[in-house]
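Hi support team,

I'm filing this because I wasn't sure whether my run with S-adenosylmethionine finished correctly. The job status page said complete, but I'd like someone to confirm that the output block is well-formed before I use it downstream. Pasting the exact inputs I used:
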Amino acid sequence: MNEELKLQTVNEKIPINIDNDTILNINTKSVNKLTHGFHKYPGKYIPQIPNWAIKKYLNNNKTNTIIDPFCGSGTTLVEGLTEGNNVIGVDIDPLSVLISKVKTTHIDTEKFDIISKWIIKKIKDNSVKGQFTPRIETLNHWFTQEAIEKLSKIRFLINNIPDKFECDENIKNAFYICFSSIIRRVSNADNQSQKTYVSHTKIKKPTEVYSLFFNQLKHYQERFNDFAIETDRKFKSEIINTSSSEKISEILKNITIDLAITSPPYIKAIDYIYNQMAELFWIGDLFKMETQPKQNILKNQYIGNKQIKKIEYSDYNPYEKKTHLHELDIILEQIFTLDAKNGQKHAYITQKYFAEMENHFAEMKKLLKLKTHYIMVVGDSTVSDIYVETANIISRIAERNGFKLINKWGYKIKNRYMRFDRKGRGGIINIDWVLDFERMKK
Ligand SMILES: C[S@@+](CC[C@H](N)C(=O)[O-])C[C@H]1O[C@@H](n2cnc3c(N)ncnc32)[C@H](O)[C@@H]1O
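And here is everything the job wrote out:
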């Protein structure tokens, strides 16, 4: 670690004022309160981060609007609502959008309870009269036959909730996400790693489907109630499934935003679709993503995506195509030259990542009014064994798009699942940087 960095340990709450270059060691137990723990999500951050930003910048008496342009599983949005704000989330990933919607929507919890009891009774009485089985050839690799049969029955019941319950779309979505939230644990795939894979050395005993689902229904019921107590219904949430590097300023042009908080994807680190493959087998049909070929079509729109076809990068040469950012050009040239095997591809992926982040800042410049703060959490990466100071490069890109970096501090990443596997070539990232930008005149 750089010698100029100062380490500070804090418990639960992050102090409002943090000196530049401080690294916080945040001890916290409460990361899963309210609806936060509904669903795992790759790259999820702790609610204390958006909560800190809200307390720091929105301590006025008016109703403010917060945006998270890479909202993932909606951590910012849940905190925004409970702190008394309207919230807008944007994400390219349809599953993340559904998770965020469920976590931020007030539902009729009595009805949720009645329908849950109906599902449980149907299963216990063994009176489910149909199945919903995904048509995936490799399903038996990912799930035991017992798990497949049980999951098929639950999904069939959710699809066929009788009209007499008057189940609206929000309640139905809550059941879908509750169902999705047990998939990884009941599958043969490793629970701990982000990537969906079946280990042949560490044989897993999948959790029994019904007991886990029944427990999860109870958990959702309780947490929906907590959320209803803590959050006033008058605050609105809107979640949009689109790319944040294109046209969002157009889509949201009539909305005044008071604060932006986000953690964008990292370079070449997380394949969001692959990581959620098991869940997508079972609910991907809701967004036309149930098979791998369909999933792969969407991948190219994800920032940081590493699955690039050769035809896309075969002409790329960083010595010829400059980014006009000296430190980035040097890094790209190093990756290109020093990695004989994958240098061209990795350099291309890296420049594409920053180009898309630049488009994103151009959009945010149009969207945010002067003096608005934009808090961005991002980690550095290692690409082809070369250290990429992502946070610093992003800061330079933001600066040439109308934002001024007014503070930078970091915190140690504790939960492995929340960030990265240390194995493999994806890069080791121990610290997340919190970049505090202010929208300036240019
Ligand atoms: C680090 S995650 C955000 C996690 C979030 N803070 C949470 O706590 O759940 C980054 C998100 O960016 C999304 N993303 C990737 N490319 C995008 C794009 N072009 N436009 C919008 N979202 C994108 C991914 O789908 C992912 O959900």
